[in-house]
User: Which sequence fits this backbone?
């Protein structure tokens, strides 16, 4: 496989960069509207909807971030 994309998701910014013939196409990099913070929030809502008790404080956010990044 010689073609694909690199998806970088940071806490406050995300981007997609294509790869063609094993070369990064930096000039075609595009921002994404989804960030790591968005994923954390979504993950917390999913767990809450499945019956896990969440307070939503900083400790919970750090716990979810650790699970997400494994």
Assistant:
């Amino acid at each position: 496989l010689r073609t694909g994309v690199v998806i970088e998701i940071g806490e406050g910014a995300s981007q997609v960069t294509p790869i063609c013939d094993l070369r990064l196409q930096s000039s075609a990099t595009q921002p994404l509207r989804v960030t790591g913070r968005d994923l954390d929030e979504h993950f917390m809502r999913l767990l809450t909807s499945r019956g896990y008790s969440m307070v939503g404080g900083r400790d919970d956010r750090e716990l979810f971030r650790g699970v997400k990044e494994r």
The two ends are 26 Å apart (CA to CA). Helices lie at 36-49, 58-68.
